[in-house]
Amino acid sequence: MKKLLVSSLFVLLLVLLAGCAPGSSVEVTTPSATMQLAAPGPNPLINQPDALGRVARAGAGLWHGIIAPITLVISFFNSDVRMYEVHNAGSEYDLGFLLGSALIIALLSLFARMRR
Length: 116
Hints:
Helix content: 40-55%
Structural class: mainly alpha
Largest sheet: 2 strands, antiparallel
Low-confidence stretches: none
Order of helices and strands: HEEHHH
Strand content: 5-15%
Number of helices: 4
Mean pLDDT: 84
């Protein structure tokens, strides 16, 4: 059983690493479905202002990371709502988004521990 788990984790790691290579894609086929996994490409709208002339920076990324779980649920019902602002400042926005998401996960786990 342990050998199967280690093998499965190794295969998962290989798929994840292959998916991180630029311009790469992995196709997973099962008898009932086929799934195409592709790494995201470059953002052509980076540092390009939106219709109102704004470019999202770290503060906006932090806020979008904090509200990401709620935005994800809303995006299932409203196709105009997106989790991630494409008109952003690149790594600065990504860092804010990551920190906001990590903050929410940390707070939720803290509250879950306090309730026990």
